[in-house]
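Reply to dn_fold:

You asked what the input looked like. This is it:
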Amino acid sequence: MALLLFFAAFALSAATHAVGQPAGFLSIDCGLEANYSGYTDTIHGIFYVSDGSYVDAGENHGVAADQESGRIRPDLTVRSFPSGVRNCYALPTNAGNKYLVRVVAFYGNYDGKNSSSSLQFDLHLGSNYWDTVQAGSTKQVYEALFVAWASWAPVCLINTGQGTPFVSSVELRMLGSELYPHVMTNQSMRLHFRDILGPTTVSRSVARFD
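and this is what came back:
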């Protein structure tokens, strides 16, 4: 399955308020304790669940205390994978439906090693290369569009020998079949660049995307 690039530009930006969790709408807070029933993000109204039901390996960690300020709740925990070369999340899908999958990685010095500048690992969608995560000091976001080929889709973190893979959150969104016609069963797309083409603040009287 080939991975193409897609460009996304938004003329205006506004908060999205989710009501409940519609079919194909899944938000996973990686590193959240497995016995935790989940929570609703107070900023966007999105319900996050633990990743315990979607992955069977890894360790839970919290970011360093001095990295917590100004962060949304899903960024405060990570799941790391110190063992194994390939560790995968199994995301529930319906074969033939189109999806957006988003992986967020915020290092936040969770391991106390201050190794963000050299830490990197690969992401795979199924058996196909998706992108290379370069941790850095800020939150990294990776997105891909694909047509599901089975009842679940593996999103995998690959240890390339340059540090322990980790992840902060994984999100899955089912899309309408008419969107992104170039995305097909044998061809996916990945995010290359996104920008906001407009004011940095938008009045709700000008734009409302609730």
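Residues 6-19, 203-210 have pLDDT under 50 and may be disordered.
Hope that clears it up.
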